[in-house]
Amino acid sequence: MEDPKTDISSVILNLTTTESPDTQQETVLKYMTADVSFEHPVCSVRPGPNSRDKVLKIYQWYRVLISQSVFDRERQVMYVEIVQMFKLFFLPVESSACEVRPHAVLVTRLELRKIKSLYYISRQEDFYHTIDFARLVLPPIVPLVWFLLTFGAIFSIVATKTVPGDREELYEMDNISLPVQTRA
C-alpha cells in the first residue's frame, strides 16, 4: 500500500467481501508479507514460511464490514473498527431464527512493514468485546456472559471498599509522565 489510511478499506473489502478466490489470493499476495501472522480468538497462524497461504484460507470464510480506521505512521500500526457477521457451521443455533443476524464489533490491529516505498501487512490481531464474541459464536449464552461481566464489576466495586491497604500509591501512578503519542 502506498497510503495505508486510504488503501486499507479496499484491501479489506477485497479480502472479505469478494466471491472470487482469485481476487482474495491476489490481494493476500500483494498486500501481506510472506511471513504474516494472524491472531483471532478462535484461530491463530504463527509467522513463518507459507503462513500467508494459511491466512488466505481463513479469509475465504471471513466476512466483515469496515467502520473506520486510524493509521499511526510512526509506529507503522493501523487500527480498523470492523463489524463481522457469520454463523459457524457446526453450531446448532440458526441465525435465521433471530430477527437480527448475529454480529460483533471488533478492533483489528494491523502491524505494517515498510519495504521500499510500500507498506505490507505483517501481522493481524483481532479484538472482540466479550459480549460481542459470545453473540457471534453462541447467542444463547449472551445473558450469562452479561451477568458474569456485571458480577465482575460489582466484585471490583466491593473489593475497593473492603480490601485493606494504602490506595494512595495507586493515585500516585496517575502522575507518571508518559511519552506523547501522535496520530497520523
UniProtKB/TrEMBL annotation:
- Tell me which UniProt keywords the record has, alphabetically: Membrane, Transmembrane, Transmembrane helix
Its domain of life reads Eukaryota
InterPro entries membership: NTF2_SigF (IPR057514)
Q: Where are the transmembrane segments?
A: 136-159
A Pfam family it matches = NTF2_SigF
PANTHER family (alphabetical): CHROMOSOME 1, WHOLE GENOME SHOTGUN SEQUENCE, SNOAL-LIKE DOMAIN-CONTAINING PROTEIN
Name of this protein: SigF-like NTF2-like domain-containing protein
Ranges for domain SigF-like NTF2-like come to 1-161
